[in-house]
Amino acid sequence: MAGFKTHITVGAGVGFFISLSTFITDWASHFYMNLVIFATAIVGSFLPDMDSDTGVPVFIVFGFYGFVASTLFFYFGYENSWSVLYLLIIPIIAFILVRYLLCYILGKYSKHRGAFHSIPAVLITFFLGLLIADFFKKLTITDKFLIAFSLSIGYLSHLVLDEIYSTQFLFSKSKRKSKGKITNPLKMKVPKLRFKKSFGTALDWNLKDKKSAIALYAILLVLVFLSYPMFRKLFFVL
What three-state secondary structure class fits 90? Predict the structure, then answer.
């Protein structure tokens, strides 16, 4: 599979392309929204690594997500005129819950290349991102959909990259038949594509764990139902 830095680099590239597109088309309500869309794609690009069982990625990922969670709560509280005490305490609690409690739960009850590495997880990321963005009332409906889209595309880039790294080119000497005999006068090496055992485990629709599959699709249906009013708003805007 691809390394942590590779995922971030590709996520940044995806985010740059999406934010550049929104800037050219003027879809985002403000210029700073293009920066938010760029950052969101990067966040999505290593969301699947929440189930990673290696030390450094887990420390970085959940530390970053804890920071994002605390920032979102601070912004949400500021937007809704929370008291200074709440603005100080709640973001700290959010950071602790994400960095330590969520990290512990996922580390204990999930496995790498499991439910988080699947197509349903990409769709859940989109609808969940849409619902979270809906809490921020100052965002336009278009901004909310752009954020959710960028988050899910960044997530998808991670899975696609894992599938690409699940293939390998092996080079073997070329063989040529001459009068019934196999010869190799040029001694050329011919590339041969080989698939690793991990191939097909990232872009997966039907998970091997049936319980996880049922849970994912149930969550997806609930999120689709909850997001339906937002799709109606987008339809009237367009």
Answer: helix
What's the pLDDT tens digit per position in 5-61? Answer: 888 889 999 999 999 999 999 888 888 999 999 999 998 988 887 766 555 567 777
Torsion of CA 226, 230, 236, 238, to 10 degrees: -130
**Residue 102 in tokens:** 């969520």
List the one residue out of 152, 123, 145 whose CA is nearest residue 233.
145
What's the pTM value of the predicted model, to 2 decimals?
0.76
| Dihedral sign for Cα atoms in the order 98, 101, 107, 110 | negative
| Domain regions of the chain by residue span | 4-53+111-166+203-237, 168-200
For residue 127, CA distances in Å to 74, 160, 179, 214, 225 come to: 22, 20, 64, 17, 10
Token output for 115: 């439910």
Q: Which of 178, 144, 170 is nearest to 22 (CA)?
A: 144
Rounded Cα distance, 104 and 100, in Å = 6
Q: Could you tell me the CA-to-CA distances from 220 to 33, 126, 232 in Å, in that order?
A: 27, 10, 18
The DSSP-derived string for 30-63 is: SHHHHHHHHHHHHHHHTGGGGG--SHHHHHHHHH
- 8 A C-beta contact, residue 123 and residue 220: yes
> 90-109: per-residue pLDDT in tens?
999 999 998 888 888 877 76
